[in-house]
Amino acid sequence: MPKWTAEERSTIQSVWQKVNIEQDGQDALTRLLIVHPWTQRFFSNSENVSTPAVIAGNVKVQEHTRRFLGAIGETVKDLDNVKSSLQSLSDINAHELFVDPSNLRDQSAIEKFFAVVVDGLSNSNQN
């Protein structure tokens, strides 16, 4: 688990305060479902999640957005206990949605890459 500096904590909390869970979450999940259509399988076969307009009106998508971003919001409040804060969401991913853990590892690799990019770009500014 990372050790957060006071500045990092403040930045994370400040950025999170700007997140509109309803709108930003809906936008992000809509993009995910459209750009990666195989993720539509996480919603029942009877759910139509094929277009942005239909996704926006889908109650299950809205519930998932609130649950997911609500868990992230709770995590932001308790940055020293990220894993325990996300345990219930992790359980849902594993036991109800059957999210393939490799998807999360792929995301981790991308995040690591962007961390290196940020570091590379910021080093020039420090000289």
Automatic annotation (TrEMBL):
Keywords noted in UniProt: Heme, Iron, Metal-binding, Oxygen transport, Transport
InterPro entries with a match to the protein in the record: Globin, Globin-like_sf, Globin/Proto, Hemoglobin_b, Hemoglobin_oxygen_transport
PROSITE patterns found in the cross-reference section: GLOBIN
One Gene Ontology term, aspect cellular component: blood microparticle
GO molecular function, one term: peroxidase activity
Keyword Transport annotated: yes
Claim: Flavoprotein is one of the keywords in the record: no
Biological process per Gene Ontology, one example term: hydrogen peroxide catabolic process
Domain Globin, first and last residues per copy: 3-127
Ranges in a coiled coil: none
Entry-linked Pfam families: Globin
Membership in a protein family: Belongs to the globin family.
Protein name: Globin domain-containing protein
Organism name: Pyxicephalus adspersus
